[in-house]
Amino acid sequence: MANAQKVMTLADTAQLIAKVHKNAAQGVRFSYDSTKGEYGNIAAYFTAHTDGKIYGVKFPKYTYSNTPTGVKTRDNANLTIEISTNDKAGRDDYAALPAFRVWDVNATIGDDGVPHVTAIDGIDTRFSRDGTNGDVYVMTCPGYYKLEATSTHNEFLYSDTQYDGYTPMPGVLLPDGSKRPCLLFAKYAASLDSQQRPLSVSGKEIDREFGSQNRAIDYAAKKGKGYAGRCAGDNFYIQLMLMIKYAAKNSDVLGGCWGYNSQTAVTTAETGVKRVIIATTHAGSFEVGSTVNVGTDRERGNAGNYSSARARTILSKTAIDANNTALNLDGDAITTTTACFVSSMPWKTGATDKLLGIDGRPTTANATRQPVRLQGIELFNGIYETDADLIANSVKDSDDAGRVELYRVFDITKASKTSTANYTKIGEFPARTKAIDNSWRYAEDFTLSNGVLISTGIGATSATGLCDGVYANPLASQGLRQVRRFGNLWDGAACGVFAVVLTSDLAYRWWNLGGRLSALGRTKA
Questions:
Q1: Which positions ≥6 away from 262 have C-beta within 8 Å?
Q2: What DSSP state is assigned to residue 17?
């Protein structure tokens, strides 16, 4: 212990310097503890590699200017980011910065919510993204943020160091107030194993059975008390990174699969083939690398939609003749008839694995038909993702007035499928009248409450304000509702990082709803 007197002795100083050097040495590089089967110095690593810089972005409030474009401030002022594709790595000034650096890892989450990193991509040979070594997460440092507001502007500040007035990112603090050694974000939307436990692995169909608030609670719990469906911490990180890195609130700077409602008839019947033949005039409507069903029912939610083939990847296209083109598919051989249709479906997980950078999408063309990657996290595969720790409550106040309240539970082990009794009310979405009930309304701005950005205003457009929509119907239907994020295959410009749909009951599931694991379900209020 150092001398408690006001004047430190030389021995005290030497002791403190030695301690600092020792801690720094422990964090120089990640160190694997073979006896525990995990990396044992994650916290020390991030402590040793902080640089204390502050990255800011300033946006005008909607009442001052409705532009969605911001200005980078502080240490963010001169940083540039360009999206990458499968063929080109864009410039990325953020990739090596301590506050933004990310690693793909395999990890488990303890019942207490503490993460245990078992493998790191590029550092050891144990890492796998196909599930053979467990779930795949994106790891980054515990971060801290501050929102400074004036009458005309909002400025977000972000750092790897907690300065006065800075709040730990949602999820940094465990329920007892201690800090997680790192933040982990599921790299992929969720598939399910044979025991209906959610996974974050590459190359899988995103499972529609996990696509409700109820299932997010039940199925994640099968993995342990530390696991959850997607949570507020996952959302806020994605929203903040978009704003900080791109000085934008419009997700269009990256892209996203919400303009991909492609469906066409099979033109030639075949047996025992790994392809499906369609009219050449429609072949351009299907993306190589994307996922399709083949079946006799046009409705994607029915089993007949995939009576011939389900969730197949288009590997390539082959011209058969002037009028017909084959979509070459992965998987086993299939049989098709001219009663079948080919339907675009949400992309499988791992669709962005070949990107030559951290952020981007597979190709430069057709931005609204592809998933994207932001901070290494694959997003916007063509499904809505349902929150596990939020519940909306639709309330009808009169024949011409309704509203939607928002509630958050901070410890996922206290989450409910029927009640908000253990939840904290954190705000409300803009009120609705009968004239605008049951419709998309574009959000103008936001409030920040308990780690959640809540949309405000209804008068913006797809190119102003938050550039994303809120869909609600409190006059038509009341009760507890799911909070759905992002967007599906064809909901278009209303979709994005700020988009919210608030119309489905807590158990509702459909083909266009999915989920995602969260390592941040157990947090301090």
A1: 282, 285, 286, 342, 343, 344
A2: H
DSSP single-letter state for residue 321: S
Contact 219/456 with Cβ under 8 angstroms?
no
Nearest partner of 382 among 241, 211, 264, 267, judged by Cα:
211
Could you tell me the pTM of the whole model? 0.94
CB 149 within 8 A of CB 105: no
Residue 218 has a pLDDT of: 97
Distance CA 159, CA 149 (A): 18
For 431-491, the three-class secondary structure string (H helix, E strand, C coil) is EECHHHCCEEEECCEEEEECCEEEEECCECCCCCCCCCEEEECCCCCCEEECCEEECCCCC
Instruction: Place 24 in a pLDDT band, splitting at 50, 70 and 90.
Output: low
Q: Tell me the three state secondary structure of residue 14.
A: helix
Number of residues in the chain: 525
Contact (CB, 8 A) for 227 and 389:
no
Residue 307: DSSP 8-state: S
Residue 2 pLDDT: 38
Closest CA to 523 of 413, 422, 416: 413
pLDDT number for residue 14: 56
Pairing type for strands 496-501 and 469-472 reads: parallel
The secondary structure of the chain in percent helix, strand, coil, rounded to multiples of 5, reads 15, 35, 50
Check: CB of residue 188 under 8 Å from CB of residue 175: no
**How buried is 340 (Cβ within 10 angstroms: 0-12 exposed, 13-18 middle, 19+ buried)?**
buried
**Helix (H, G, I), strand (E, B), or coil: what is residue 283?**
helix
Token output for 335: 């049989």
Whether the Cβ atoms of residue 153 and residue 64 lie closer than 8 Å to each other:
yes
Residue 135 DSSP class: -
Does residue 8 register a pLDDT over 60?
Answer: no
Distance CA 222, CA 224 (A): 6
What letters, b where the CB count within 10 A reaches 16 and e where it falls short, cover 90-129?
bebebeebbbbbbbbbbbbbeeebebbbbbbbeeeeebeb
Q: Please give, one letter per residue, the 3-state secondary structure of 172-233.
A: CECCCCCECCCEEEECCCCEECCCCCEECCCCCCCCHHHCCHHHHHHHHHCCCCCCEECCHH
Average pLDDT of the chain is 95
CA R_g for the chain: 24
Nearest partner of 219 among 378, 486, 350, 412, judged by Cα? 412
Torsion of CA 109, 424, 159, 248, to 10 degrees: 110
Q: What DSSP character marks residue 105?
A: E
